[in-house]
User: Fold these one by one.
Assistant:
Number 1:
Amino acid sequence: MAPISQDEPHEEFELQFSDLHDGIASEAQRKDVLAHLDTCAACKAAYDEFERTMSALSTMKTPKQPAPAEFGKQVEETIAARSAGRFFGRKTLGDRVPFGALLIIALLVLIAIFAFMWASPTGSLNRRDGAHAPDLAPGARDVVKPH
Amino acid sequence: MSLRERILLGRLRDRDEAAFRELVAEHRDRVFNLTYRMLGNKAEAEDVAQEVFIAVFKTLDQFREESKLSTWIYRVAVNHCKNRIKYLARRHQRSHDELDETQLDPGDGAAMTGPPSAPRRPDRQVEGQQLEEIMRAAIAELEEDHRVLVVLRDVEELSIEEICEITGLPDGTVKSRLHRARLALRKKIQRHL
């Protein structure tokens, strides 16, 4: 297959340069193009130039251009300015404090206290019918009136 | 989409400010790098990157979770860049028209508003910073559709599949257009290599 002119690469081969570069050309396609490049000076020159371009382009990959340090803050400020502070959900006290969880914890604590007092032999909640009242100290008999 | 992304998305939809900060911190460098490579100008890139995050937050409810959150953010960024490129081109054209009308030297206005042009130095041996500068200018001169593909594939190193998702173009179109974009780029930097 002869080139159109001595300086012009063959379009059908030139179209495959990207596939070759990206490594997505099939094995047969790759062999075909490489074999052609060995025999066609115009296509070889075009391919070399293509590869030089891709190599130059790779200088853009690193370093990446990081966003300015204040970028995040600026975005938030812009949002706040445009929405007059209404952009993010304004949280009420109820949203910020987990009242539900606190209520459950308080109930559990109350139940624990009640159970402790109930189990205690001296606890006033555990007075059994007919139970013998504890003896009063001698000085206390003058204070407590008998029924 | 990963579980972590789903949780973050849920918090974002609840308008959680901390979640928004996390989102910005995670994606700001990649978004800024993309906008900078697309627009070739730091001030414009920063402005557009900010708009991208604001748009992302405002339109979260439109995100259908068919792709990764990062892919969707990229799509928003690409669309914003395209719009800005069009706007800058119109402004550039308008400034040219105004200058033509007043018969002033067109060079002044173009330097202020137009896309960056390639350095005119005829050096053939260029390296490092200078080469990057030449490439930046050459990319900024590419057609908008070509520019998107070169930046996404050859600078951001995204896969063809991801590019298809971002641009909404079929696989074959992305590949053939990318190849044409690379050839166009080759033409633009030919004299520098």
Number 2:
Amino acid sequence: MAKRTDIKKILIVGSGPIVIGQACEFDYSGTQACKALKSEGYQVILVNSNPATIMTDPEIADRTYVEPLTAEYLEAIIARERPDALLPTVGGQTALNLSVELAESGVLEKYGVELIGASLRAIKIAEDRLWFKDACARVGLECPRSQLVNNLKDARVFADKVGYPAVVRPSFTLGGTGGGIAFNPEEFDEITSRGLDLSPVHEVLVEEAVLGWKEFELEVMRDLADNVVVICSIENFDPMGVHTGDSITVAPAQTLTDKEYQRMRDWAQRIIREVGVDTGGSNIQFAVNPETGRMLVIEMNPRVSRSSALASKATGFPIAKIAAKLAVGFTLDEIPNDITRKTPASFEPTIDYVVVKIPKWQFEKFPGADRTLGTEMRSVGEVMAIGRTFQEALLKGMRSLETGKRFSMPRLPEDVLRRLLTVPTSERLNALFAALRQGMSQEEICRTTAIDPWFIRQMADIVALEQKLAAHTPETVPADLLREAKRTGFSDEHLAGLWNVEEAVVRQRRLALGYEAVFKRVDTCAAEFESFTPYLYSTYEDEDEAEPTDRKKIMILGSGPNRIGQGIEFDYCCCHASFALKEAGYETLMVNCNPETVSTDYDTSDRLYFEPLTLEDVLEIVDLEKPEGVIVQFGGQTPLKLAKALGEAGVPMWGTSVDSIDIAEDRERFAELVKKHEVLVPAHGSATTEEGALEAARRIGYPVVVRPSYVLGGRAMAIVYDEDSLREYMGYAVEAAPDHPILIDRFLEDAIELDVDAVSDGEDVVIAGVMQHIEEAGIHSGDSTAVIPPYIITQRDQDRIRRRTIQLAKALGVIGLINVQYAIYGGELYVLEVNPRASRTVPYVSKATGVPFARIAAKVMAGHSLRSLGITGEPRVEGYFVKAPVFPFNKFPLEDTVLGPEMKSTGEVMGSSPNFGEAYAKALLGAGVRLPLGGTAFISVNDNDKRPLVVSLARDLAALGFRLIATEGTREFLMRNGVEVGLVFKVHERERPNIVDRMINREVTLVINTPLGRSAFYDDTYIRRTALHLGIPCITTLSAATACVEGIRAIREGVSTIAALQEQHPVRV
Amino acid sequence: MEAILALEDGRIFKGKGYGAQTERGGEVVFNTSITGYQEIFTDPSYAGQIVCLTYPHIGNVGANLDDNEAGRPYIEALVVRDFSELASNWRAGETAEEFLRRHGIPVISDIDTRALVRHLRTHGAQRSILSTVSTDTEALVAKARALPPMVGLDLAKTVTVAKPYEWLEPSVELAREGKAPGAPRFRVVAYDFGIKQNILRRLVDVGCHVTVVPALTSAENVLAMKPDGVFLSNGPGDPEPCGYAVEAVRKLAGRVPIFGICLGHQIIGLALGGRTYKLKFGHHGANHPVKNLLTGKVEITAQNHGFAVDPDSLNPREVELTHQNLNDNTLEGLRHRSLPLFSVQYHPEASPGPHDSQYLFHQFAKLMQEFHN
Ligand SMILES: Nc1ncnc2c1ncn2[C@@H]1O[C@H](COP(=O)(O)OP(=O)(O)O)[C@@H](O)[C@H]1O
Ligand SMILES: Nc1ncnc2c1ncn2[C@@H]1O[C@H](COP(=O)(O)OP(=O)(O)O)[C@@H](O)[C@H]1O
Ligand SMILES: [Mg+2]
Ligand SMILES: [Mg+2]
């Protein structure tokens, strides 16, 4: 069989913004798919609302639409582009659902677009839990007993039959949103009702729970000739009941005999054939009873997934790339294996190492949320580690997580420990080690956790070795024992902790004994064939296969696991640095430990080191490769934290000096700088004690912004209005960063905030973009909606901002990127923060301007001047580009949705248009907020907001035909100003119907609610929570509300523009 | 316990010893299968070989009564990166170490097995000694050099049964799913050159009544049993010295349907006038892509062989090449254009390995059926 020639133009749908359950793994797979299809000569049309992706770089596809991922927009794009085919399987659940929608509504047929990869029927069978079970039954495979219901009553009847615990799973939601395990009837009612609401088809599946069974996954591929191969088997360390996305997972499976594994493989083949996924990758999950071996099929994802990204990284087999080629008619045996070159892709990778994936959670950002792990995914990111043994991979994975925690844990009381073991939470891994250290028996641990004894034994052996090592000092430790420790995966830091010495002491001793890491290759074939792709991991073995070249090389440190505040944007920058430096003639070395990313695609850099981003691990690579420079500027806080120590170790650092970075981060040094250059900053102080803080705040004046130093994403940052709140804050924040003081700033209330990105070569500074936030200062820049160019800032202020940015870049001797945050307050320009490094906004600015600033910055670091790169001035921006954040509140149902200085969003989208209102509305739509075109707007604003702006807002809404209702105070204020408004009761006013009733009755189409101050938060959180729950747009700032009005107006006027990036920036592309 | 693996070219690996306290010699080869170590231990084709398993954790699921391919392990010794002292699987009856110790087989673990594999990949399979009793490396290398080379070695003769016996058991999978095969429809005589029991089980599954006979059984004696088909098994060593079997096949060809696997395939190749040769480091694993040249489909196959049939040595007018290895294009299967005879180099019975090629057993049944009619 061969490539199809009857199709020429292929539409690929991306996965949109990063959300929990759908992260940058789809940038990785989408980018691979686009590249693969383009290289085969197809014209690729890409739609993805997420500007922070590599896949939306203009050179990846032929036409790139950064437009909302909705059926309307896709139809418009299809009508405009007339593609021959749609590949629905590389953009996660989002793309799959949209493709189904387009197919079912007849759009695909109307425009003659063929679904390739998976047919509508196959997608539906795989996605509809009941159809899927039927399909399994048809080929003789067993699934848990279950029933699909569309109301609570039927659900109860079935649950009573199968008994509790029971699993509730909403149909067609992402990452299991809205599902859960109910242990009793009360819980069951709650989860079922929520699930019914969240399911787009108002349907849930109630299922017999098989908690504690072993959970496995197989990554399967099929081609049009019906060849089926298994790429990777994955065993979940956490048994059934914890979502695979929240489980520690291990590849390959460790506790299956060949008979059992082959049976699973046979089942997988039968399933993929029966479901009828024509080509591409699928993920199939199984549960196995540890006592009897009875096996059940849990689910299938007929598309590439988070697990397939992991499997690709774990084996070196690029599933998405191959899947794309299979979709256009190639068969597996026609595609070469990139790594061995001589062998075909029609084989099953075999590995001679162990891969461990550990999720990263951020419950600390959502204090109200329940930390229990269940059937719904909660983690925001993950790390992968490769080791020659499970122990080594596990320990490498743990240090990749950057939890900041030491390996040792305080002794825990028996009951606390037992609870931590029984109820799975983000703390369970640490608790397991604690239990072993405290002498709990392995049998008992297995009994309480249902984790396989083999894993527990491995961990017990680590603890036993730890105890043996602890009896020594760096001087007395026998060489063999130290070797064993390193071979087991102990880091120098871990050993230093055991011996209570500096890490450097351990390192010295280790090197004196000649124990250095060696590097082995990921080669898909366990060394049976020669490998041509330097995809490497470290281990402590005899033979090193790194074979460093003698080319000029540069090392780029990645950004580690995704987390809120440090995500795909930084990976985007790292990839660009790599592309740019390759162009500039360097060999590029990428170091990263995040399996979801494009940066850890072995195609991205010349050499990939899949390693933890710790000082030790980085130094081992530096010692081997001896790069000309190391770049820490692009990976966010993770590499920056290493900068100082790397510099001290004599590693050549490129770009802005470590010292300048320190000036920007260190409050005192920064204060000196601003003083010297007469830069206005908010009044500020710092304190290490509660008294000190109170005193500083008194001097500065309330309200104040408080935060621990050296944090990213505004972690533990708060706005404090009075002394009591400050006392309360000091109580928990000091714990957040014990070694660092608390910083206190005057809170510039109601100020306009702006972000500026610029690039400097040491001589010239060029502004990349000025972004105006829609929300006022006080809402973290990562959480606010922003627009390029600024839309209500005077030219004079803009000029001041540009001059100030240039001045700061020069003062800090920036080589590369710089980001400055400003607030305009009382007519003055304040600097809130200076980051002499790549910021979160770089990809957005690049997409808005069409200039790849990260690439330019990398070249500048390599010594090119901006002028020589043709970058002489700030790019002119045509039209408006609005960035909007996306929040994970639906995953944390107890959490208030109000925004503040601590970042909570997981991702972003961009909307663009010649018209600001439309750009804004499109950005919101991309972020999942569909502005109403009419109906009833509910307004409830705080006292500060009871000012003319709210009046004009209300008038505008009324003019657009909205009926207005408001709570008492707001209503009074508006009526006084001549606006006709109806009254609505708050819940505590005890009159019915109250606002919640009205929302539930779907009377309200828009909520404008601005809370202020701490106490107010608690008052009306229920309003926002109800809005979230019911999917009613809820706006929490007046400025955003004003922008909404413009958006609504634009949509109502029927302006509807779509444009490809390649059209928006024709010259630069 | 310390252990040493000494290669004939002088390369030494030092590690931890497990299993029996002893010294064993053989050709060291590597197998890349992730699962199925017990089946590998007990595959008689490994007679005369020390096996290095490339997957680092071996022993995790212990050993059980169902997963044996023969009455005892046949590997000379085992080389691994990590050997599990704990058996974690509901079917496990003992640990892998207990199993090997019971059968006198030594293990070396904690060595850089990947370095060994790369060494073998570059320098080819090597004679070597694994010792858990001596640390005299020079002496061990000398002993390795004194071992007989694999080329020219007839090991089939040493592992075959002494007396014929009947085999009645179906495969484990079928037994578990409760589907018993129907009454036997074919009488099959299986030559035992080191036969894996899963071949016998698969034959039973497709309706065969199997009589296993010693390697040296003459064609006349086989024909006297009036079989519907003859099966030629896998086995260890070089096919060339097995002249007796080649002779028997020549006499049987055309008179009764024949199916050969692995060594059986090589013997058929020789009987058809072809030539066999030794591969550099052989094929040992469960992930080899084989293309069925008749259907164009790719099968993922289990393989375990150090020798291969040279396709150019076969007469294309008589012999049709049916299967090809996609990794290195070596010959994986053939059939005679006019006589009822076919064979494959790989292991359709799997165990360990994927079940993609089970159809070959049905094909054998069909061939017997057609021949009968
Ligand atoms: N019947 C069940 N009993 C116990 N746990 C279950 C059951 N079904 C699913 N789970 C758990 O819930 C997780 C999510 O379920 P899954 O069907 O894979 O949904 P998703 O589409 O969200 O991945 C699984 O990984 C598994 O751990
Ligand atoms: N003095 C201040 N007055 C008003 N808002 C502030 C002030 N300082 C910080 N903020 C708000 O807090 C957000 C986060 O602060 P920032 O210093 O940028 O932290 P991070 O390092 O996490 O980006 C800013 O985007 C801004 O909205
Ligand atoms: Mg799942
Ligand atoms: Mg900031």
